[in-house]
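Fig. S4 source data, part A: sequence.
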Amino acid sequence: MEHKAGFVNIVGNPNVGKSTLMNALVGERLSIITSKAQTTRHRILGIVNGEDFQMVLSDTPGIIKPAYKLQESMMEFVKNAFEDADCILYMVELGERELKNEAFENRLTFAEVPVIVLINKIDLGNETQLTEALDHWKVRLPKAEIFAISALENFGVPQLLDRIVEILPVSPAYYPKDALTDKPERFFVNESIREKILIHYKKEIPYSVEIDTEEFFEDEKIIRIRSVIMVERETQKGIIIGHKGTALKRVGVESRRDLEKFFGKQVHLELYVKVNKNWRSDEKQLKRFGYKGENK
């Protein structure tokens, strides 16, 4: 039987639903999801295995104009996603008309690999809006295939998966057939905690935070985790902790609940808060947190 395998990279502007699609295709909650922009900071691989195929999906940060070194590193992940793809999924919202980065638009226009434009969130619109969107993107990217989907409602997702499998090149698998992702357990601990901070804190706080899981010990019945929430200023530390520690406790309780579902066993989670000044603009710190040197 002929075996297919390839890298399928999901790109688009912030908040178009890339992480929701990734999780729907993989069948597991690998990428965190919130309503805030820049929820995805890293390039996360999700692996879909079939009897005769392996699809390596890549969820990338939303395309933005970088304002500091962390965001520059995030855009490097997007750039790399264009360079190593066997198929590119470009996601837009229903009603979206522009590609906000001219360089990335040129990459899509002249891509040597198949490009599929995904018009997402069609459940929020009507037939007239969908027809207008289909016509617009057919003109804008004439070489691309167009799919209308709702990643949240799983509408059109099975058909999309079938089409991607047809496109994949003939190749042996890149990862073991039981692999789900390339990320270690600590990464998902960090992301679960960061998701809760994105949900519960406002303004600049969520974007000034990085998580470092210092300890991860697993035995048969329980996983013991110690994680540090790093902020850039003392005032942010106080906000994260909250009055009598109530805000930090809420983050811990909700993160532990999600991690127990993810790992399928009891979790003991300890959270601490430390100040790490200007880490978002420090090359050494960015490398330490995995924002430099990542690739497939």
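Fig. S4 source data, part B ends here. The chain has two domains: 4-167, 185-288.
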